[in-house]
Amino acid sequence: MSLAHRSLLLLALIAMFLSSVGAADDSDLLLHLEASRGVSLDGGNVTAWADGERWGAIVPEGYDRPRFIRETKELGGKPCVAFAGRDLLGITGQVLPKDAVEMTVVAVARMEAASSVGIFSIREATNRTIQLDTDAHGNARFIVRDKSGRAANSVEASHHGTWGVWIGVLRSGADGESTTQVFFNKACGPEANSDLSLPLAGTSNWIGGLPLGRHFLSWNGAIAEISVYDRALANQEREELALTLCEKYGIDYQDTGRVAPSAIYPWKTEPKPADEEMSTDVCIVGAGSGGIGAALAAARSGADVILVERQEKIGGTGVNALVSGWEPGPGCSIAREIYDEMRKVPRSTGVSRLWPRKSTGFSMGLWLIDESLADQYILTTRRAGVSSNVFHNVPYRPEAMDRACRDLLKETARVTLLDRTTFFYATANDAKSRVESILVEDAQGAVTKISAEVFIDSTGCVHLCRAVGCETMLGFDPISRFDEPSAPEKGSLQLNAISRCYTVKPSKNPTPQPPIEPVPYFAKVAHVTGWVDGHRVINPLPSLPGRALIDFGYEKCLERSERSALAHWHWLQQQADFEGYELDYIAPMLGIRESYRVVTDYILNEHDLIACLPGQKHDDIIAVADHPCDIHGAGGGLGHVENAYGVPYRCLIPKGDWENLLVACRGSGMSKIAASSCRLQRTIIQLGHAAGMAAAMAVEADVPVDEIDVGRLVETLDAPSRYRWLEENMQER
User: Fold this and answer.
1) Using CA atoms, how far apart are residues 125 and 222, in angstroms rounded to an integer?
2) Percent helix, strand and coil across the chain, each rounded to 5?
3) Which site from 159, 319, 511, 674 is most exposed, i.e. has the minimal number of CB atoms within 10 Å?
4) 611 in helix, strand or coil?
5) Does domain 276-349+396-494+594-732 fall into CATH 3.40.50.300?
């Protein structure tokens, strides 16, 4: 027999062996479950999942049965077990030997939501934990924690809604230090080291979730196969095993969950011939908080303005995503004017307080308007130093915000508003120093070319800046970028969570919300604003991780988050505070907290938030904020700020030679940590206020935006004066 034939025969024999388990030596294989065998069913639900005669996983009392899917299209028709809600399988007995100090967990699984816990878990009451699952970002995670709380936690990017091979490895070093490492298909997470107290074996072994006393953490997704080894697989056999499983289930081994930023938030198409041309002093793209502030400030400073907005209503995320409330924190005169304008119509806005709640057993803030506080707007302009149970915010009706802003813009007689009009193309000069014109398209398909002396990007996702090639940032900044104390060692493409808000209304005969099957993931929490006896806006907080925009795209996120919102309301409608309420409507737009951020002449960062106004040395502060870092579903950062901090004008000027371009939105020049604090609506109105005034000054003086009289801008705005509690906060420190 030739060498070639012997090689082919050997490969065939190896393939036959691998078809059952994988490429690893299975002599230390403790547990092996496949959905294609050993599954006991009652109807379409799993009652038990057996590993030959060694182990059996059953549904514990008080928990639900996972669904059995006989043919999974994405797996080439192979079966899987799907988990959601309170679905759980428990393994009786101790899978891992008592003296185990190393192990490997392998799973073929699909995740449907971040913070999905427990593809496979071992947990003891003394804190000891072994988990292969996902973190709040949607990263694959393998965490091992000992009874003292010491942990080794390795994470790596993964995909939502996509099948992959998940592997967690625990190694024990000669020096007594333990190492965990997680893998998703080909991708290799960084090693995490800790001096763990071993062994870690326990008798509580779970699949598809993790019970924690009265609480339950669920794996929201599906599992096709699980293997547990009593040793750390060597790198070569781990790689071979992952590749074999990918081939077995038709999974792309190269799909690592790491996506090029250019694939996120697509915006640009090819140019089209213009049906009309317009010119103006200042053109603002985006009529959200920043765009409205900019348009009013520029027009009142004597500039002619064109304001472009793709939605039917203006007001941005607050109006169209139903994030319709101003959280506590300072604002400028424009914000106060908008409030006063809305107050002209009864039950349009007001000052809220925390209301006593009837519902129990879950986290909910019930912030309802107290008409006796209507003239106490000042109470809403402070966050630092105020306990969360006594601060006040400003809920508003979305249609009232739209009307009030339109009326104020109209009063200037200088603003041309182009709503239901989408920006899609920009032209810059060869030197990349000036934006020459943009193209926009209205709802009827008519294209307009707009030329302006100054352009302001207030699109949130900084579409205009990206269109002309400005440098941007996305996701976590590594500590090497700004030397921020709370920054991770390594940057990652993780984004703040997305919300899909909805409104409910009182009804004498409310329509019950039917259940959604299968039940999508949603967090049993709620942030509720509105009126005691009227409309209420429900913010379910993390409907989807921000990472979902990368994995699914905007339209798919709309579809998924709508199912999540309906399931959330089905649950919330049964709570005591919502008796007599029914669904009104779901926001037409996603509540996106984070996207691209532009690299500007100065980047606001955590050092500014720590220093606060008394410690900052900037001479160009044009806005103030005092909100804590607020990274929904994505970790934390600086938990709170001690006082108000300032935002420099340079954060609005894109880095480079740009003479006529400013950015005033959540995508202005900020680190991820700073942006999580400096992204609230009244703060963004301040950025717009400054950008609009600066743009008008540049037009009047015929100078680039970085050569205006910044001292006059700062003096006119007098941003620190918006915060009357500066000295009081310092005394409290």
Assistant:
1) 27
2) 25, 30, 45
3) 511
4) helix
5) no
Contact 202, 97 (CB under 8 A): no
Is-contact 181 74, C-beta < 8 A? Answer: no
Nearest Cα residue to 66 out of 95, 115, 109, 20: 109
235-266: b (≥16 Cβ within 10 Å) or e: eeebbbbbbbbbebbebebebbbeeeeeebbe
Please, what is the average pLDDT of the chain? 89
User: Rounded CA gap, 122 and 220, in Å?
Assistant: 18
Contacts of 729 (CB under 8 A, 6+ apart): 384, 385, 642, 643, 644
Q: Global pTM?
A: 0.84
Q: Provide the β-strand partners of residue 457.
A: 285, 663
User: What's the sign of the alpha-carbon dihedral 379, 383, 387, 388?
Assistant: positive
pLDDT beyond 80 at 298 = yes
- Residue partners of 112: CB distance under 8 A and separation at least 6: 84, 160, 161, 220, 221, 222, 520, 521
pLDDT in tens, 682-713: 999 999 999 999 999 999 999 999 999 999 99
Q: Is 367 exposed, middle or buried (0-12, 13-18, 19+ CB in 10 A)?
A: buried
Mean pLDDT of 314-339: 97
Domain ranges, ordered by start, for the chain: 17-249, 276-349+396-494+594-732, 353-395+497-592
Residue reference for tokens 């996506």? 259
**What phi and psi values does residue 110 have, to the nearest 5 degrees?**
-130, 130
What's the fold here for domain 17-249? Jelly Rolls (2.60.120)
CA distance 454 to 116: 47
By CB neighbour count within 10 A (0-12 exposed, 13-18 middle, 19+ buried), where does 269 fall?
A: exposed
Specify the DSSP class assigned to residue 362.
S
Residue percentage of the chain with pLDDT more than 70: 92
Element (H or E) spanning 688, and its range? helix 681-701
Residue 532 neighbours by CB distance under 10 Å: 12
Whole-number Å distance between alpha carbons of 538 and 530: 9
Q: Are β-strands 305-308 and 415-418 bridged in parallel, bridged antiparallel, or unpaired?
A: parallel
**Token representation of residue 614:** 């008394």
pLDDT, one tens digit per residue, over 375-405 is 999 999 999 988 877 889 999 999 999 999 9
146-155, 351-360, 393-402, 416-425: the lowest-pLDDT one: 146-155
